[in-house]
Amino acid sequence: MKLFIILGAINAFLSVALGAFGAHGLEGKVEPKYLDIWKTGVTYQMFHATGLLIIGVLLGKLPTSALLSWSGWLMLIGIILFSGSLYVLTLTKIGVLGAITPLGGVSFLAAWILIIIAAVKYL
Question: Taking the complete model, does pTM exceed 0.90, yes or no?
């Protein structure tokens, strides 16, 4: 419970910091196309930071569940793969990194499915 709340808060903090960096540090330095890619990474990082916080709260309210724990780890992996690959793509313009992004998206989807299953099972 505590770990996912901490991970969620760290990722929310990083999302705000990286969003500010993109808006102020990258504007005019990268093409608008890449700035939009950066913004997508920031947006998804914040959504899933919130997801991690929700998982932390649910773990405190529901019986210990591997479903929720796996969901949290998949969200963290998704943030690293999805948002991380978009950040690196923006800074390096190495297009092949775009192939990593969908793996993060699949991690996000799996994490949300596990939350649905846990809710059906325990709520």
Answer: yes
